[in-house]
Amino acid sequence: MEKTTIFDIVIKLLEQRKFAELKLIMQQMNPTDIASIFDEAEAKDVPIIFRLLPKELAAETFAYLESEQQEQLINAFSDKEIKEMVNELFLDDTVDIIEEMPASVVSRILKNTDEATRRQINELLAYPDDSAGSLMTPEFVYLGKDMTVGEAFAKIRQVGVAKETIYTCYVTQERKLIGVVSLLELVTASDNTKIEEIMSENLISVGTKEDKETVATTLAKYDLLSLPVVDGENRIVGIVTVDDAIDVLQEENTEDIEKMAAIVPSDKPYFRTGVFETFLKRIPWLLLLMVSATFTGMIITGFEDKLSASVGVGIALTAFIPMLMDTGGNAGGQASVTIIRGLSLGDIELRDVFKVIWKEIRVSLLCGVVLAVTNFGKIMLVDRLLLGNESITVMVALVVCITLVLAVFIAKLIGCSLPIAAKAIGFDPAVMASPFITTIVDAISLLAYFLIAQALLHI
Fold first, then answer.
1. Which pTM value belongs to this model?
2. Count of CB atoms situated within 10 Å of the CB of 80
3. Quick one: how far is CA 187 from the chain centroid?
């Protein structure tokens, strides 16, 4: 059944006040699908629909809601409902919610949590926003190395329901991480087997201050379901699960795309961002790029006298400027996007800068020569013969094609080197994407174009 059909049924049942049928339908739905219904429902109906959900399903759905909807629900909740909600939520989800809420809402949440939970929340909030510590959850299963498999299962049954995951269990000794054992290894071992005999000591862990994007890429690289987070003394303080890593990668990819499009990143969905706020996100880069593009105008103005001295040749040369600038910008964009993505995935390191430049030089020459030969044929056959433009001579075509090779070469060289340079000095490589590179390439290519024309055409 499609989402729109489910939504129509839910709204119809709500209007008819058939709550028993509505509750029955929603109990069979996935939390993410229920959250999508809340996106479309009227504000006054949101608390009514939410209260029809069983506690566990309600908590799972709540974690998928937008922060505005969560705030609306918390304001509609009684203290008892808030307490029940916090008790059902995993601790990392509670922290994520608190970080998005205004102070008045946060105080209500903290007021309705027990002292131990409140202390854990405050500890997680103390970590930097982009660190593994802020992303982790302290709700994981830990076992002792001297436990038997039977004892381990008894503990998992006792505490597992309140933990983020039970598929990977961590072996500790005096809180220090010494091993890891999967649920598969536990299930396939006999009850009398010691955990020490089946645990893996080949541990992959991260520190609490590790950047969360690095944490996410580590999970992806090693195909892990969870990753232990340790402090300076190798004591395990939490885990990061794969669902949180997916959220981080999605956020980082969105941020990179926005930066590559010359937009200040936003953490809000498109339709939840106001017109004025969207304007403020876009205008800074547009202003910067507009001002920087004045260099292109200055170059054209500087050669204006020479172009006007030979009217026919000047018009012919001017007609090819858009093609040269667009081709250079596209070539630079290809290189920059490839390198930015490689840096993001860890395929390219700072030490690879000369290997990258050498490869892009060869690629640019191949691309430039093919484009130049093709363009020369097009200029002579189409522009000169078919369109009858006598001012386009063989020398004019030669100037355009030489400049084309040079523009592609310059564009790819700048496109591959600027992102690496940005990362080397601590900037986000995505900032050095197509719009920024295009502006630089346009100015350099245009200057080269007129200098080549001046030398070969004697204008």
1. 0.61
2. 9
3. 37
